[in-house]
Amino acid sequence: MKFDDLLALYQDKKRKHGEETYRHITSLLIEAKEIHKKDFANSTTAARAKAEGRIPDHEQSWRAFKGKNLEKLVLHIIRDEVENLGLKIVEGNALERTTNSHLSRELNLVKRALLVDYGSFGHHLPDVDLVIYDPHSCTPVAVISSKVTLRERIAQTGYWKIKLGSDEVTKHIKVFFITPDEDSTLTKKFPAKKGRAIVELDTDGGYVMSEQIVEESDRVKMFDKFIGDLKRIVNGKK
Questions:
Q1: What is the spatial distance between Cα 196 and Cα 131, in angstroms, rounded to a whole number?
Q2: Can you give the CATH number for the domain in which 227 is found?
């Protein structure tokens, strides 16, 4: 299974659900898993495992696929609306894995403006999935981590918010988390689970792609509020 197959499933759901499609990401992933399982059974990875006397581990392969491609799906969903605000968006890996000499001047400047200062231990990029930036000033506006559940990386996201916020050069950068929240960590405001507490206090916001009812707050909202909040940031109202 490839990302294009996942995208085709998304487009099918979009034709059916329209603006509410974001609520059906979990069911989309369930459908995708069945397709991925059939493809995996016929893959060279499965064949090699059988030849070595091992049981092919589809779950491990699926987790890797799901994590990597959820990020790409979020990028696909928000790219046009981000660009309509006069901004651009790029995958964090594009900055991390590409040497400065191979980056465009624009992305080189964005990368430099995102670096976290560790003193004598150097400057390092935060581990984020997506970076939204102003193409005119090449200034990062926001970074996004996108994971299926909060336990996968929410504490790390909170850490990067603290690090970025501790430097005058990077403190303006917003740190967001977008998730289908498959383990329902964000559903209730009180009593708050640990992941919800981190989102509320140590990020600039978490946005949920889920059919579940979420008790919203200033920091935890349904995904359809994301672009509106980003627009307010651009206009200096948040």
A1: 23
A2: 3.40.50
